[in-house]
Design goal:
Elements lengths: L2 H19 L6 H19 L3 H7 L2 H16 L14 E4 H20 L3 H19 L5 E4 L1 H19 L13 H19 L17
Antiparallel strand pairs: 1-2
């Protein structure tokens, strides 16, 4: 195992233990992806090597990061049945369609990399969104805010894994890797923006459905 993977494996186990004490759970894959992205972000921001960034990520730093992450994840209402959750966010039919398409693309990433747990999580989000949409009786679909936050995080994970060299979905050329990762990131940010929009009006689409 490489030093990078050894560090990730050790620290992700510690991160999951801290989060468990806070009443939250992550899969090992999720924890490693989040930590890897955080270290890369720190190395870029501080203009240091990855090894230096890892050394800076000590026990106290990890504990603070876990607490910050717990606050973020708690907004996703972990463990709640989102079909029965209060639906406070209004989405237009086109926005639901674009969200569904984005989820499908992220699921392709999980499938291409044989990540069964991620596949199960993504399919659960897709199923919940579908059931909620089926119950809508107008052109606006009321959805639970935590569902949108979960979907946004799922897309972020997929985009990060593609940036880090994960297998591309079948039919996508290597030349399209950067654009694919960028679209996943844009979709995650757009969906998250809708989840955090306090206005009563349905927000517009965050990007054209078919970017060229």
């Amino acid at each position: 195992m490489s030093p990078r993977n050894t560090w990730l494996s050790t620290r992700s186990t510690e991160l999951r233990a801290i989060l468990l004490d806070l009443g939250l759970t992550l899969t090992d894959t999720e924890a490693q992806t989040i930590l890897d992205d955080k270290v890369n972000e720190y190395a870029t921001l501080m203009r240091v090597s990855r090894q230096t960034a890892q050394r800076s990520f000590g026990d106290e730093h990890l504990a603070r990061f876990a607490q910050s992450l717990a606050l973020s994840i708690s907004d996703e209402a972990p463990g709640a049945n989102l079909v029965e959750f209060e639906r406070t966010i209004s989405m237009s039919i086109p926005a639901v369609g674009l969200t569904t398409a984005a989820l499908a693309e992220a699921l392709k990433v999980a499938h291409a990399n044989l990540k069964d747990i991620a596949m199960s999580e993504g399919l659960s989000h897709l199923s919940t969104l579908g059931m909620i949409t089926a119950e809508a009786s107008a052109f606006l679909v009321p959805v639970p805010r935590p569902l949108l936050l979960r979907i946004a995080r799922f897309l972020d994970m997929a985009g990060t894994s593609i940036k880090d060299g994960a297998n591309l979905p079948e039919g996508l050329a290597e030349s399209g890797r950067a654009q694919f990762a960028e679209i996943l990131s844009v979709d995650a940010d757009g969906i998250r923006a809708i989840a955090n929009d306090d206005s009563d009006d349905a927000p517009e689409l965050w990007r054209p459905p078919n970017p060229r």
